Amino acid sequence: MTPEELTQMRDQTRQKKSDCKHCVNVCTAAGCLSLRSDQLKDAIDKAVHHAGRQDEVTVKSVGCMGLCSGGPLVSVESGDDEVMYHDVKPEDAGELVQSLDTEPVKRLQCPSDMPFFTQQTKIVLENSGKIDPELLEDYIANDGYAALTKALTEMSPEDVIKEVQTSGLRGRGGGGYPTGLKWSTVAKSPGQKKYVICNADEGDPGAFMDRSVLESDPHRVLEGMALAAYAVGADAGYIYVRAEYPLAIARLKRAIRQAERAGLLGAHIGGSTFRFMIELRLGAGAFVCGEETALIASVEGKRGQPRPRPPYPAQRGLWGCPTLINNVETFANIAPIVRNGGDWFASIGTEKAKGTKVFALAGKINNTGLIEVPMGISLREIVENIGGGVPDGKQFKAVQTGGPSGGCIPIDHLDMPVEYDTLKQLGSIMGSGGMIIMDETSNMVDVARYFMEFCMSESCGKCVPCRVGTWQMHELLTKIIAGEAAPKDLDLLKELCEVVQNTSLCGLGMTSPNPVLSTLRYFEHEYLERLNTNGHGATAEAASTEGA
Amino acid sequence: MNMSTLATPQVITLQIDGQDVSARADESILDVARENGIDIPTMCHLDGLDPVGACRLCLIEIEGTPKLLPACMTYAEEGMRVLTDSPRLQKYRRTILELIFAERNHVCSVCVSNGHCELQNMAVKLGVSHVTVAYRYPKMEVDSSHDRFRLDHNRCILCTRCVRVCDAVEGAHTKDVMGRGVLSAIIHDLNEPWGDSDTCTSCGKCVHVCPTGALVEKGTASSEMAKRTQFLPYLTRMREHHS
Q1: Whose C-alpha in A343, A394, B30, B181 is 20 to 30 A from the C-alpha of B50?
Q2: A363 three-class SS
Q3: Final residue before a domain boundary, out of B58, B85, B112
Q4: Do B109 and B69 share a structural domain?
């Protein structure tokens, strides 16, 4: 597809859309789909046909609209007006279609001034819930592949890297490594063959940002990868996506096929000399395969185990070639950066953290779902305002960020800005974007044990400290919870935390003590309360909290 | 003769434990240290096999690097300042060794490798006289299905020397690792009894590279199983000469 054809398709699709009086968008991402939004869409379709209005009303499957707790979600676009509906059932379809030219259905309508919608800044999710993820033309109508065309016709690979460097974008997979720096390292690494890998092995408990992006806007990730390949000089790419995301996989496969047919992937992309192919690789359920060296081993067909770094994949990656690995959200940021310029991106966020971050709100919070907020926003804003606070009148206790590598942040620090460095100072990490909110009923030792159990069962078993250390720490936490631990057991736990943190081979092991360390830092009394100091079995107090 | 046309590997100098040493840029810190009489403890490493950096005993401190790095897989660089035996490293090594002892059932007194065991020697060397972490006491199997050899999972420390020698030196790749975490285990082919393996050549290399009493020759009684690892450096050298 030449740039001219692309523009033509964009304009045609836009025209078609503006010809339609009403556009009814039904969320068909995994969350709403699990509430049978496919049946809902069929019902609305039928109602439209029944009313004989199929010429002026389009019913469309779209991606995630964010407010998963209110699913199935439907939005109705009528010209410039948009009305959002929550908890829509198939039996509401008739009423919904009837209301199109009159007043919206009040009982299903989401308040339009809801902070959940008004306080967000959408870059990564700009098309989520707006376009049909299965239609290439829908993505193109929203400036899709415009960045790739711009790069191929107006920019050198160095220009692309420079734009990404100017943007200040940092890796969204957890580490926060400067993306532009990584790209320029791979670009400068000597080698004829280079690879680009998209890490879509999202595995943190409670995190579903990447799944949502892949299900809602797969072409955005492909475009980001193609831009990366052009910038670093790669001609082949892999998306390593976990097999537990069947819908994301199906939509990715379809998107790759569409892009290949349209000449936006493959040889002579956009009529240029640039070639780039993308293949999918499915993870087989190992969390550690999100670690880049383990991921590479897995793509190579080996046992998914990490190896010591250096050498980093940028120097020696897939099959020994220089390899660029970024995660889904990082790649999803690339097209807007190239399209609008690095300076535009750098104007959003804070001094040290640019742009936005997608978070998955889960746990004890009213508005569970997916949000995108500018970097530097306070945790309080996210939890109390956007998230709508803790349900059932309970007290907020802590928010867990960063998954099993992260930590728990208590109420005293809620006003801290969400940034890589501040979260680190608080003993947690930005991580990939999972946020689990806990109320007063959660016990922090239980939380620590939950994450330790996760790390223990996900340890690949290669290095001794992680393999045996996580087992030992899990054992000690279990003992503390049972009220059978002595003060010296807590000392041993702290000692093991230090050893495992400093001696493990990869990030999984090195960060596995974080949930223990952060809960010890803010909630040590909960550990002490459960210690058995008299040497006669469980104390009455410990036994009573156990039952809670 | 023009000196610049000579293909010489880059020779550099660095400091290990305050001692100035010279090295080629493709040499590991472990090799350079041992060459200069500085011993760094190792368990999974064996000369002649590709390093994996898994046991974490050879971790070293490098000035200016926040992470501890495995000496077996860290390569010499100009001006590097390396510490191999700081109090912190000593403490970590002892804990790691304790973790190994607690993981499975290492009962020396009844082991055929008693007195010839690298794990036992390491405990003596690092001064690990007792274990403070909890013993797991897992119930592990013993595979005696092979005519000449036995695999006792109770004594295995998952160093994967046997896997590597079988794959890279013998070329059979009969052995590999199954499962993950503490449930990891050495298997033959697709988890078959060793004796049923089609790929095993019965060469016995795995037995002799095994640091403990996990892989042994049948017919040995307590303390009788001494390993002979001399073949490995010899084979490696012969192959290097011919390649």
Answers
A1: B181
A2: strand
A3: B85
A4: no
Residue of B nearest to A495 (CA): B95
Straight-line distance from the first to the last Cα atom of chain A, in angstroms, rounded to the nearest whole number: 62
Q: What distance in Å separates residue A178's CA from the closest CA in chain B?
A: 19
Mean pLDDT score, A268-272: 92
Average pLDDT estimate for A409-430 = 93
At B217, which CATH number?
Answer: 3.30.70.20
A92-141 per-position pLDDT tens digit? 999 999 998 888 999 999 988 899 999 999 999 999 999 999 999 999 99
**Number of residue pairs across A and B with CB atoms under 8 Å?**
91
Prediction pTM value = 0.93
Tally of structural domains, chain B: 2
Residue A143 Rama label (left phi>0; alpha psi -120 to 50; beta): left
Q: Are A380 and A415 in contact (CB under 8 A)?
A: yes
Phi-psi region of B227 (alpha: psi -120 to 50; beta: other; left: phi over 0): beta
DSSP category for residue B151: E
Q: Do residues B81 and B104 share a domain?
A: no
Verify that B100 and B122 share a domain, yes or no.
yes
Closest CA to A218 of A250, A242, A244, A196: A250
3-state SS class at B127: coil
Q: Which of B51, B85, B119 is the last residue of a domain?
A: B85
| Residue range A318-331: mean pLDDT, rounded | 97
Element of type H or E holding A407: strand A407-410
Are B182 and A461 in contact (CB < 8 Å)? yes
The answer to whether the complex's ipTM is over 0.90 is yes
Q: Which chain A residues are Cβ-neighbours of B153 within 8 angstroms? A: none
Nearest CB neighbour to A472, from listed B92, B133, B176: B133
At residue A183, what is the residue type?
W
Are B180 and A458 in contact (CB < 8 Å)? yes
Pairing of strands A277-283, A236-242: parallel
Q: Is position B229 within any domain?
A: no
Residue B243 lies in a domain: no
Burial class (CB in 10 A: 0-12, 13-18, 19+), A474: buried
Instruction: Mark yes or no for CB contact B55/A463 under 8 Å.
Output: yes
The residue-averaged pLDDT of A171-189 equals 94
Domains of chain A: 17-113 (3.40.30.10), 143-346 (3.40.50.11540), 356-439 (3.10.20.600), 444-547 (1.20.1440.230)
SS3 A338: helix
| Rg for chain B, CA atoms, rounded | 20
Structure tokens at A163: 């734009």
Residues B95 and B194 in one domain: yes
The pLDDT confidence band at residue B1, using thresholds 50, 70 and 90, is very low
Q: Please list the residues that pair with A198 across neighbouring strands.
A: A239, A326
With beta carbons under 8 A apart, name residues in chain A contacting B134.
472, 475-476
CATH number of the domain residue B14 falls in: 3.10.20.740
Domain that holds residue B166: 90-224
Is residue B137 a part of any domain in this protein? Answer: yes
Shortest CA gap B1–chain A (Å): 30
